[in-house]
């Protein structure tokens, strides 16, 4: 009998599931994700499910992950350079491109094409060369995006070849990621892809090394944001395709487990809560592009709403609003920190002996990953301090010059903050007992003292504060579910309506007027923290809470039950008279009429979609065809405007 192995690497846990050829779950396991050395977390989960299984019996390995999603939500990623060809300054303000760039180097050079695929002006090769020679030592990867590159990619390809001839660093071209118009959003997607390459590359390398260690020779597949699979080599080049990979795998796995036609799935991890609606037996796919971390990309994905709320969300005191706030930043829970570094208990006790709590009480910083080579002097100095073990943040800020260095290291994913979280609140209340409850209790005591001393709410005990945190997490989750269902019904909740809903649900709040929301669809809560919050969520919303066996590893199961799906779109546009121009990926070509153009476009789309599916590891490829002709009315005549020819190639991964 052959077996298949499903894996999911999340921000907190790495999950593994072993299934037989009929997708019956035989074993499942969880292990802490080890960000500094990802193979340890993978090894811990895999070794638990492979007991009494021979390596040659493993026929397929499928991996999903939330690492890309978490990085975008938290604003993390390595430094990259962006080359824009034919752009204007005004375009930089669209799609959040300027904000997404942050401090990363960027250059705008002459070049680009028109909507018909003809060059606007010659490419400024010397300008690109000078930019690369100036900034190459600062960056880990490059992104290249040209105006109308989807109509003619020659300038992007030329810049890619130039960068590859001058450096050994990866290059992402916008036309490789999407065939849709909207140059700023395509550039944004290319930028995010380049930023994620080192992170996802490290995960894939760890997975390959583990399979080599265990002598498993099965293909390694990766879940995309739309729930389909690609080979590890494709994921290595286009890691942005893996944003919402973990949530998408959870949706696929949850649907497989429960078989409900209509279901609201809410997956709470350490960093995010991801909500998706299954209607009439299938989730919807957002063809316009997934939105993650406030950025609307061009990555097709299951229509998932991602919220910066999880078991590891930082609980901080907002001095302006004078109340406790959850997220969206993720930190390591104090209970986990003390479980791994027991000496932190003494530091917390010492902070309680001080007369006052400070802004940074009960906060630590520790190494999260290996440092890049381009750290500043202060960043190197700070990393050296942290590399010896967790350091209390309030001791670092005796030297105020280190604050910006710390923020930058956190942003780049080099170090991680630790602090009080909803997970710690659950440890205080005894609803979770995985790690060290003493550290959680000390953190709650420091936080309640800070709230009291800064004109905030007075909590009678650490238990009362923890009850508030857990209730607040449930309330925010309930609001997220309402927002998702409302959007599916065709309307959005504005800020005032959201505030009214929150006030209506808030425990201890007695408004003169309130509305009690009701969901008329069952909810399935996934993720390790779900059992602590979702019974209260179901109570607040008056809905059924669906529970099934193996829901705790729905993400890993969803990874292994998926299939490969690759799409190729080719546009046909007018070229004067009856002639048309087929916009092939390598440049436009004219034909005498629409039908001749369609035959050529369809043949090329079949060839490219099939090749992409096979490159992604598919066997027994099945094709789907779609043609949409658009016309415009001119008097009594219908004038051809555009034709969209789409071929989709599908198949299960090939098993040797």
Outline:
By secondary structure, this protein is of the alpha/beta class. It is built from 22 helices and 31 strands. The mean pLDDT is 87.
Tell me about this structure.
With 656 residues, the chain is of the alpha/beta class. Among the domains are: 122 residues, Rossmann fold (3-Layer(aba) Sandwich), CATH 3.40.50; 155 residues, no CATH class; 89 residues, no CATH class. Helices cover 39% and strands 25% of the residues. The chain is built from 22 helices and 31 strands. It has a six-stranded mixed β-sheet, sandwiched between helices. Strands 11, 12, 13, 18, 25 and 26 form a six-stranded mixed β-sheet that branches. β2 and β3 form a beta hairpin. The relative contact order is 0.12. The model has no long low-confidence stretch (mean pLDDT 87).
Question: Which key terms come to mind for this protein?
Answer:
six-stranded mixed beta sheet; alpha/beta
Chain-wise SSE layout:
Layout: E1 3-9, E2 13-20, E3 25-32, H1 38-49, E4 58-65, H2 67-74, E5 80-85, H3 89-92, H4 97-101, E6 106-109, H5 125-135, E7 141-146, H6 154-166, E8 171-173, H7 174-177, H8 183-213, E9 220-223, E10 229-231, H9 232-237, H10 245-258, E11 263-268, E12 273-279, E13 282-283, E14 285-286, E15 291-292, E16 295-296, E17 301-302, E18 304-307, E19 313-318, E20 323-330, E21 332-333, H11 334-340, H12 344-353, E22 364-367, H13 377-386, E23 391-392, H14 393-396, H15 402-411, E24 415-419, H16 422-429, H17 437-453, H18 462-488, H19 495-505, E25 523-526, H20 530-541, E26 545-546, H21 554-561, E27 564-574, E28 580-584, E29 587-591, H22 594-615, E30 622-634, E31 637-651
Parallel strand pairs: 1-4, 4-9, 5-6, 5-7, 7-8, 11-25, 21-24, 25-26
Antiparallel strand pairs: 1-2, 2-3, 9-10, 11-12, 12-13, 12-18, 14-17, 15-16, 19-20, 22-23, 22-24, 27-28, 27-31, 28-29, 30-31
Helix pairs in contact: 1-8, 2-8, 5-6, 10-21, 11-17, 12-17, 13-15, 16-17, 16-18, 17-18, 18-20
């Amino acid at each position: 009998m052959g077996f298949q192995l499903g894996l999911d690497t999340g921000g907190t846990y790495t999950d593994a599931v072993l299934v037989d050829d009929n997708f019956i779950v035989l074993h499942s396991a969880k292990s802490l994700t080890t960000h500094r050395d990802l193979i340890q977390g993978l090894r811990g989960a895999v070794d638990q499910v492979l007991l009494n299984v021979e390596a040659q019996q493993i026929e397929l390995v499928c991996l999903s992950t939330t690492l890309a999603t978490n990085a975008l939500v938290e604003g993390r990623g390595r430094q990259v350079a962006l080359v824009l060809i034919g752009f204007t300054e005004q375009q930089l303000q669209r799609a959040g491109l300027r904000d997404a760039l942050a401090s990363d180097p960027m250059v705008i050079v002459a070049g680009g094409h028109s909507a018909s695929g003809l060059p606007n002006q010659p490419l400024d090769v010397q300008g690109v060369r000078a930019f690369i020679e100036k900034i190459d030592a600062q960056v880990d990867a490059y992104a290249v995006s040209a105006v109308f590159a989807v109509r003619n990619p020659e300038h992007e390809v030329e810049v890619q070849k130039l960068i590859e001839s001058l450096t050994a660093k990866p290059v992402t071209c916008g036309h490789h990621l999407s065939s849709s118009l909207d140059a700023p959003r395509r550039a944004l997607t290319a930028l995010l892809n380049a930023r994620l390459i080192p992170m996802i590359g490290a995960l894939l390398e760890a997975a390959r090394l583990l399979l080599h260690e265990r002598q498993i020779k099965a293909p390694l597949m990766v879940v995309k944001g739309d729930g389909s699979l690609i080979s590890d080599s494709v994921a290595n080049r286009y890691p942005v395709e893996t944003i919402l990979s973990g949530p998408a795998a959870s949706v696929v796995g949850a649907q497989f487990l429960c078989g409900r036609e209509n279901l609201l799935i809410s997956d709470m991890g350490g960093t995010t809560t991801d909500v998706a609606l299954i209607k009439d037996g299938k989730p919807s796919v957002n063809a316009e592009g997934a939105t993650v971390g406030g950025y609307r990309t061009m990555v097709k994905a299951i229509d998932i709403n991602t919220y910066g709320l999880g078991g590891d969300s930082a609980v901080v005191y907002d001095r302006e609003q004078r109340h406790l706030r959850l997220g969206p930043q993720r930190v390591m829970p104090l209970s986990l920190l003390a479980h791994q570094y027991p000496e932190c208990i003494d530091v917390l006790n010492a902070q309680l002996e001080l007369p006052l709590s400070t802004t940074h009480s009960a906060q630590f910083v520790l190494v999260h990953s290996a440092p890049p080579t381009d750290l500043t002097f202060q960043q190197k100095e700070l990393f050296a301090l942290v590399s010896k073990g967790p350091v209390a943040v309030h001791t670092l800020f005796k030297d105020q010059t280190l604050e910006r260095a710390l923020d930058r290291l956190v942003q780049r994913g080099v170090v991680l903050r630790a602090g009080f979280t909803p997970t710690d609140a659950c440890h205080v209340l005894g609803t979770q007992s995985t790690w060290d409850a003493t550290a959680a209790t000390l953190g709650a005591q420091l936080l309640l003292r800070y709230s009291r001393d800064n004109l905030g709410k007075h909590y009678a005990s650490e238990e009362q504060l923890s009850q508030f945190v857990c209730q607040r997490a449930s309330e925010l989750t309930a609001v997220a579910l309402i927002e998702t269902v409302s959007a599916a019904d065709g309307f959005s909740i504005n800020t005032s309506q959201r505030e009214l809903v929150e006030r209506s649900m808030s425990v201890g709040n007695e408004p003169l007027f309130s509305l009690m929301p009701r969901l008329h669809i069952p909810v399935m809560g996934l993720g390790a923290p779900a059992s602590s919050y979702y019974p209260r969520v179901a109570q607040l919303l008056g809905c059924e809470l669906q529970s099934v066996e193996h829901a705790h590893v729905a993400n890993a199961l969803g990874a292994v039950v998926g299939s490969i799906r690759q799409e190729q779109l080719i546009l046909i546009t007018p070229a004067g008279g009856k002639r048309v121009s087929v916009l092939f990926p390598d440049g436009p070509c004219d034909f005498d009429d629409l039908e001749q153009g369609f035959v050529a476009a369809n043949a090329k789309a079949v060839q490219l979609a099939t090749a992409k599916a096979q490159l992604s590891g598919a066997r027994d490829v099945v094709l789907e065809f779609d043609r949409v002709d658009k016309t415009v009315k001119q008097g009594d005549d219908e004038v051809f405007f555009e034709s969209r020819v789409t071929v989709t190639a599908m198949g299960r991964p090939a098993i040797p």
